[in-house]
Design a protein that fits this description.
The protein is mostly beta strands and 704 residues long. Helices cover 6% and strands 36% of the residues. The chain contains 4 helices and 50 strands. Strands 13, 14, 15, 16, 18, 19, 20, 21, 24 and 25 form a 10-stranded antiparallel sheet that branches. Strands 1, 3, 4, 5, 27, 28, 30, 34 and 36 form a 9-stranded mixed sheet that branches. Strands 2, 26, 29, 31, 32, 33 and 35 form a 7-stranded mixed sheet that branches. Strand 11 and strand 12 form a beta hairpin. The longest helix is centred in the N-terminal third of the chain and has 17 residues, at 80-96.
Length: 704
């Protein structure tokens, strides 16, 4: 199902750059200077009012499931089709979630490796958590602009640049092995389960599973292996940065512990993380992160789950309660980090850090993780007190927001339609007082938070399962929503700020553009023009994503003339915003050019088409202007008292007789008459006159 949006920027902000600060640095000897509060970020009072209202939801709310299907369908002794029907019926949203936008991404064109224009029908519905079904009531659109910190294209098997594509396909001659068509990280899902899964060079084998079990390719999105243990099925799904394995534990009689044996590269080790995670380390560097797993029952409730490292094996165990409703879906996720070492994080331009007190800090990269896992981190606990109202934020604003507010005192007309925050963590480090509290949500600068935000208090405990939070624009005035915010705030006085971390590993943001460019009357160049270049006076404005380019063509032509027009050298994203207003009268303005020599002589009507970054119907505007072009050379006409003279022969030299008047163009045919009236016809090769007579430099190819 397509996302409902008119024109969207998608920012998938899996932030791939950290700073060299370990967890202990939050209570070190030096206090860093705090970023200043960011204009427009919700104030502490606005946040408090939102928390006290009924619009803010708890992150502890359950996942999106269908318990009725679980009640109606059998759970035990199922065949392949019956087991798949149960898994899809109860956990369909979660099973569709891992591929994200890459599951159906079909760009119409690329602007860079990180930006592309994509039909909005190519963006999948949010899935995997309660609240995902809530949709912004936005008008349907035609295409979207997608900007991502993860590459949207990469080299394919032939070495050509192609869209990242996680849809699965069977490999010819591989015995039914499934692979993503064009992934960022290598993944091979075996045609026989006993051959093992391969993710980024790490082999994963499910202990005790039937070796010959073959997968079902479910809509090219994930592989389904039935009955890998008693009343237990396995799902393997590609993700942008690796893979996710999920066991569907169908009944209480099924094994509650699943063991994954890993085959590691030479010299690599599997190690436990301090937060219940695991990691593959090679040469002193982490190559793969396995976050703490999560487990969800048929009612959408969390089920306690632990993961232990034993040698080269991972043991994932659930602890269902008497109230747990089966089946239970259990991951973990395998995140390959090596793809990012050569550089990533282009979406960082969209996020602004701010703080009201140096004891609360926004930091790139996880403070709590010695390997500095990339993402949006807010850390409390730097030296010094925290006062009631102290808060730190990571905020995203629609492209050109701050520039427009500074220059025009009004924001762009674009607005945020949707935010998905991925890998959301809340780490209280043993201190379970309610404050500081984490809030994530969309921003209405005039009033603070938009409806439908989420919160997590310290008293609700640790949140370490890398869950996702979906935040559609539910405002009664959607165009007022200009940003998104991750906030850590306290309403207590803390003599020494408590050590606490909140974290967002990645985000997807959609920004809607409903405006087309507008034109002032075009201005033709003064007088008649000729030659290789001339320009048209202009004034363009686009209050949405901005003015991307303007093209020129002759009126009635089907397409813009190649090389004519003006390119304003921008993409329209937060990293490269397009200007709101451009005018030819401004200093350094780009010329809106055309080539007179390619037009016929006379008054030529031209059409100018201005485009915003979406460059499609509804996002262009056209104006007309008429230019005067003179490309016809003057004719040579010589006259004087020579009309009665006989024509000279071809061998006769041209007389040097005076003439009364003359005009000619070099290279043009001419007829001259001497004082005797003889005509001389030829070609002027070099037009010069000497003392009013024909000089030697005026030669004729033929004369008589």
């Amino acid at each position: 199902m397509p996302r409902i949006a008119l024109a969207v920027i998608v920012l998938i902000a899996v932030i791939c750059a950290g700073i060299g600060l370990g967890a202990g640095s939050a209570v070190g000897d030096e206090t860093p200077s705090a970023p200043q509060p960011s204009p427009g970020v919700p104030t502490a009072q606005q946040t408090r009012e939102a928390l006290e209202s009924s619009s803010v939801q708890s992150l502890e709310q359950g996942a999106e499931t269908d318990p009725q299907v679980a009640e109606e369908l059998p759970h035990r002794d199922l065949g392949r089709e019956e087991a798949l029907e149960l898994a899809e019926g109860v956990f369909g949203a979660e099973l569709e979630g891992p591929g994200g936008i890459y599951d159906e991404l079909e760009p119409t064109r690329f602007l860079s490796d990180y930006a592309a224009v994509v039909p909005d029908s190519g963006l999948p519905e949010p899935a995997g958590q309660a609240g995902a079904e809530a949709q912004s009531n936005l008008p349907p659109g035609q295409s979207v602009l997608v900007e991502s910190t993860l590459p949207l294209r990469t080299e394919d098997a032939e070495g050509e640049e192609a869209p990242v594509d996680l849809s699965l396909e069977s490999q010819e001659g591989s015995g039914g092995e499934l692979q993503p068509r064009n992934p960022l990280t290598e993944l091979a899902i075996p045609g026989r389960l006993g051959e093992g899964i391969s993710v980024g060079g790490v082999g994963i084998e499910l202990a005790g599973a039937a070796q010959e079990t073959a997968p079902t390719d479910v809509e090219e999105s994930y592989a389904f292996y039935p009955n890998v243990a008693e009343n237990t099925d396995l799902v393997v799904a590609p993700t942008a940065t690796g893979a996710e394995t999920m066991t569907d534990v169908r009944s209480a009689e099924a094994p509650q512990t699943t063991t994954y044996r890993l085959s590691l590269p030479s010299g690599a080790t599997l190690e436990s993380g301090p937060d219940g995670s695991a990691e593959v380390v090679q040469g002193g560097r982490r190559t793969m992160l396995i976050p703490p797993p999560s487990a969800t029952d048929a009612a959408g409730n969390k089920v306690p789950v632990d993961m232990e490292v034993e040698g080269d094996a991972l043991k994932v165990a659930i602890s269902p309660a008497a109230s747990t409703e089966f089946p239970v879906m259990v991951d973990p996720n395998y995140i390959v980090e090596s793809w990012c070492w050569s550089g990533c994080g282009a979406g960082r331009f969209g996020w602004s850090p701010s703080s009201t007190n140096a004891s609360y800090q926004p930091v790139w990269g996880a403070q709590w993780d010695p390997a500095h896992y990339a993402g949006l981190d807010l850390t409390a606990g730097y030296p010094g007190p925290a006062y009631s109202g102290t808060h730190a934020d990571w905020a995203y604003w629609v492209p050109r927001y701050s520039q427009d507010m500074t220059k025009y005192a009004t924001p762009p007309t674009t607005y945020v339609a949707y935010w998905m925050a991925e890998g959301v963590l809340f780490l209280p480090f043993g201190n379970y007082s309610n404050y500081p509290v984490m809030v994530v949500g969309l921003i209405e600068p005039a009033t603070g938070w938009a409806p439908g935000d989420w919160s997590h208090y310290g008293g609700q405990g640790e949140k370490a399962d890398w869950g996702n939070v979906y935040l559609p624009n539910l405002s009664s005035n959607p165009m007022a929503v200009k940003g998104a915010d991750e906030d850590l705030v306290t309403y207590e006085y803390e003599a020494q700020a408590k050590y606490r971390d909140t974290f967002v590993a990645g985000s997807t943001i959609e920004v809607v553009d409903v405006d087309a460019p507008r034109l002032e009357p075009l201005q033709a160049p003064g007088g008649w023009v000729t030659g290789a270049s001339a320009s048209i006076g202009y004034g363009f404005e686009d209050t949405g994503l901005g003015v991307r380019s303007a093209g020129v063509k002759r009126a009635g032509e089907a397409s813009l003339h190649p090389g004519w027009g003006a390119d304003f050298a921008c993409s329209g994203t937060t990293a490269s915003p397009c200007p709101r207003v451009v005018k030819s009268s401004e200093t350094g303005a780009r010329a809106l050019s055309f080539v007179p020599s390619e037009l016929p002589t006379g008054k030529d009507p031209l059409e100018v088409t201005v485009e915003d970054p979406l460059r499609e119907a509804g996002h262009t505007a056209t104006g007309k202007v008429t230019v005067k072009v003179d490309n016809t050379p003057p004719e040579l006409s010589l006259s004087g008292p020579l009309a009665e003279r006989e024509p000279a022969t071809a061998q006769s030299p041209l007389p040097h007789d005076p003439v009364a008047a003359y005009s000619f163009d070099e290279g043009q045919g001419a007829v001259a008459h001497d004082s005797s009236g003889h005509g001389h016809e030829g070609t002027v090769e070099n037009a010069q006159w000497t003392s009013g007579r024909f000089g030697e430099s005026l030669k004729f190819a033929e004369a008589w």
